Amino acid sequence: MTVEKVERIRQRLTAALAPVLLEVIDEGHKHAGHAGEGKGHFFARIVSPAFAGKNPIQRHRMVYEALGDMMPDGIHALSIDAKAPGE
């Protein structure tokens, strides 16, 4: 199921942000014993022209918007590294 979540995250981010670089990594293994264990801990590195001129908070909001209903119902924690090309 986690592989499916990673693919869904990739699809949504690709459709919304047209990244030139996208890495989505399942980090669930780092959270064994944590209250949210099994609910989905991920890291996303995204380089997209859509982030040009945006501050970090705006970039994170764009990612959350792209993921929509996955945030409360499939992703417990998401670490984001969002940059514009050339950064």
TrEMBL record:
Signal peptide: none annotated. The lineage of its organism: Bacteria, Pseudomonadati, Pseudomonadota, Gammaproteobacteria, Lysobacterales. Belongs to the BolA/IbaG family. GO terms for biological process: iron-sulfur cluster assembly. Pfam families: BolA. It comes from the Bacteria. This is BolA family transcriptional regulator.
